[in-house]
Amino acid sequence: MIHDLAITNGLAILENGGKHIDIAVDNGVITQLGRQFNARKVIDATGLIVSPGMVDAHVHLTGIGGGLRDNFEGYQTGTSAGAKGGVTTLIEMPMNQLPATINGRTLLQKYNAGQNNLKVDVASLGGIVPGNLNGEIQEMNCQGVCGYFIATCGHRCMKADFTNSDDHTLLEAMKQVKKTGKVLTIHAENEAITQMLAERSEASGQLSMADFVASRPVFAEVEEIRRVLSMAKETGCRISITHVSSIEGVDEITKAKADGIDVTCEVCVHYLYFSKEEADRIGPLLKCAPPIREKRQQTGLWQRLRDGKIDYVASDHSTCPPRLKAVKNVFQAWGGVAGLQNNVDIMFDEAVQKRKMTLKQFARLVASNPADRFGLSKKGRISVGKDADFVLIKPNTSYILKADQLEYRNKISPYVGRSIGAKITQTILRGRTVYSEQGGVTTAFQGQFVKKFNQNHHNWTFKQLCDKRDTIFGQSKQ
Question: With b meaning 16 or more CB within 10 Å and e meaning fewer, what string describes 333-354?
Answer without folding.
Answer: bbbbbbbbbbbbbbbbbbbbee
